[in-house]
Amino acid sequence: QVQLVESGGGVVQPGRSLTLSCAASGFRFNGYAMHWVRRAPGRGLEWLAVVAGDGNEKYFRDSVKGRFTISRDNSRNTLNLQMNSLSADDTAVYYCAKEDGGHSQIDSWGQGTLVTVSS
Amino acid sequence: DVVMTQSPLSLPVTLGQPASISCRSSQSLEYSDGNTYLNWFQQRPGQSPRRLIYKVSNRDSGVPDRFSGSGSGTDFTLKISRVEADDVGVYYCMQGTHFPPTFGQGTKVEVK
Fold first, then answer.
1. Which residue of A59, A105, A110 is in closest CB contact with B96?
2. Looking at residue A58, what is its pLDDT?
3. Interface of B with A in 29-58 (CB under 8 A)
4. Are A80 and A34 in contact (CB under 8 A)?
5. What secondary structure does DSSP assign to A50-77, as a single string?
6. Whether A44 contacts chain B with CB within 8 A
7. B100 preceded by cis ω (within 30°)?
8. How many Å is the Cα radius of gyration of chain B?
């Protein structure tokens, strides 16, 4: 059974950095692309980034390009999201998600971790 | 980016009655391989999203058959044949045909 468990959320001051992690189990981690998606308070889901199964290809939405970095450690079945220069607009629940079959066909989600950017 | 427009944004429903959510895309979602990468997700209160439907009309394992998806091109629909209390939550369509993947605004389903 696929399990995705995020960690690393919390309260962070504007301008600071934070790294989120996602521990994966129940599937062959290096065989699947992985995504980060967030949901800000009172808003809908927003796709952020994807990394290929081998870690070689990475893509980001324009609004976080240059500020966020996605990475994975296939030896530890872990996905990471490093977020820099955070602002209040980045306050959200962040989800890691597994893709199956290409074309961002997300089929499994973690429970999410809350990031609050506030002074 | 492809804009996904859902309607209605709020859907009060009567238990046991049908419900329908529309999702329209700003570009055709048919890919050159013949597939249409349109998914539907359900997010119950306090839970993470769960995929219900992939590639327009394919139900995920464990999804009740009262949920069905249809459509083509730029016009898609999620139907619930008889709403149950468990169906309360926010429903999102999402396209993966074009990069970046984009979600609709969400439709909040609540019991009248």
1. A105
2. 96
3. 31, 35, 37, 39, 41, 43, 47-51, 54-55
4. no
5. EE-TTS--EEE-GGGBTTEEEEEETTTT
6. yes
7. yes
8. 13
Using the Cβ of A106 and the Cβ atoms of chain B, whether some distance falls under 8 Å is answered with yes
Give the distance, in angstroms, between the CA of residue A93 and the centroid of all CA atoms in the same chain: 10
Under an 8 A CB cutoff, do B105 and A44 touch? yes
- The residue written with tokens 């062959």 in the block is A28
Does residue A35 surpass a pLDDT of 90?
yes
> Which candidate in A95, A103, A105, A114 is best for mutational testing of the B interface (most B CBs within 10 A)?
A103
Query: pLDDT-derived band of residue A3, with 50, 70 and 90 as boundaries?
Result: very high
**Given this model, what pLDDT does residue B102 score?**
97
Contact criterion met (CB below 8 Å) for B38 and B29: yes
pLDDT of A101 higher than 90: no
Residue B48: CB atoms within 10 A of its CB come to: 20
Tokens linked to A30: 């290096």
Which residues are CB-neighbours of B89 under 8 A, at least 6 positions away?
Answer: B42, B43, B44, B45, B47, B108, B109
Q: Which of A22, A99, A105, A114 to mutate to test the interface with B (most CBs of B within 10 A)?
A: A105
Contact between B77 and B21 (Cβ < 8 Å): yes
CB A113 within 8 A of CB A11: no
B106 interface with A at CB cutoff 8 Å = yes
Structure tokens at A39: 């949901």
